[in-house]
């Protein structure tokens, strides 16, 4: 099961604690085409979805996928760095045209932004250290447990709903969260383990993944509710990228293996 979790890849991020701006200045599809550039939010702390390369440029699955979107639309791609807490406010305020970075679709987020059809999946697991005895995620529902989580991520809400007796320490990004766990400042972390690999490798800790899959999420592109025509066009483009096998090709390039839970192409959306 561990291999399956490692293969699943993707980080789940939610709306917990989000402050959303009230102004709406999103561009329509026509305005994006006329400008010749599409602005896409990518989180560089979620390798291999997004990360900085040796030239300090953001690369990864999200950048390659967004490049295919831009190419299909016939415009240039502008990558805008985003973090977990600010990515939805960036969409709502029109600072970016759509956001990537493991945008898990859920009803709470859908109150403030629109989602496209899924681009990829996420399979959720528990990261802890080898000295811990846990074998099932439900064993973490105890007052002695402290989760170290990224502020604004979907697992925070999951813990609130399903592991109510545990405590939670919130940090701003994944490198800090994994470092805190390595330093013993928490018991465990819930997220998609595949995306933690690069951060885990920086610490001389005997890591342990609790081999119980918690859930499977579907991630799309997040767009403003005011971006007239953009979501419909993106749905068609995403369908074509799935149908031509381009999405799987880009995924395998960055993750080294196939998506554990394929999205599945469908013309109905």
TrEMBL record:
Domain named Solute-binding protein family 3/N-terminal: residues: 37-258
Family: Belongs to the bacterial solute-binding protein 3 family.
GO cellular component: cell envelope; membrane
PANTHER family in UniProt: GLUTAMINE-BINDING PERIPLASMIC PROTEIN (PTHR35936:SF38), MEMBRANE-BOUND LYTIC MUREIN TRANSGLYCOSYLASE F (PTHR35936)
Name listed for the protein in its UniProt record: Amino acid ABC transporter
Stored SMART domains: PBPb (SM00062), PBPe (SM00079)
Principal localisation: other
Gene3D superfamilies on file: Periplasmic binding protein-like II
Pfam families, alphabetized: SBP_bac_3
Keywords in alphabetical order: Signal
Molecular function via GO: ligand-gated monoatomic ion channel activity
Localisation: Cell envelope
Domain Ionotropic glutamate receptor C-terminal, chain residue ranges per copy: 37-257
């Amino acid at each position: 099961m561990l291999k399956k979790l490692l293969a699943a890849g993707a980080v789940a991020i939610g709306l917990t604690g989000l402050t959303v701006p009230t102004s709406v200045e999103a561009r329509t599809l026509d305005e994006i085409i006329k400008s010749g550039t599409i602005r896409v939010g990518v989180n560089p702390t979620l390798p291999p979805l997004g990360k900085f390369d040796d030239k300090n440029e953001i690369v990864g699955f999200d950048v390659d996928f967004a490049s295919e979107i831009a190419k299909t639309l016939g415009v240039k791609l502008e990558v805008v760095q985003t973090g977990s807490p600010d990515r939805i406010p960036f969409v709502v305020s029109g600072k970016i045209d759509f956001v990537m970075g493991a945008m898990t679709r859920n009803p709470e987020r859908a109150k403030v932004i629109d989602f496209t059809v899924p681009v990829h999946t996420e399979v959720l697991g528990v990261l802890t250290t080898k000295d811990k005895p846990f074998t099932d995620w439900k064993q973490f529902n105890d007052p002695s447990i402290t989760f170290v989580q990224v502020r604004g991520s979907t697992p925070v809400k999951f813990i609130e709903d399903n592991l109510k007796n545990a405590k939670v320490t919130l940090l701003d990004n994944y490198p800090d969260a994994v470092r805190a766990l390595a330093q013993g400042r928490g018991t465990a972390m819930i997220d998609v383990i595949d995306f933690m690999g690069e951060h885990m490798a920086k610490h001389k800790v005997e890591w342990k993944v609790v081999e119980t899959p918690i859930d499977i999420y579907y991630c799309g592109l997040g767009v403003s509710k005011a971006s007239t025509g953009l979501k419909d066009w993106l749905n068609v483009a995403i369908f074509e990228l799935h149908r031509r096998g381009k999405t799987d090709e880009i995924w395998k390039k960055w993750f080294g293996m196939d998506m554990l839970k394929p999205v599945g192409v469908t013309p109905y959306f």
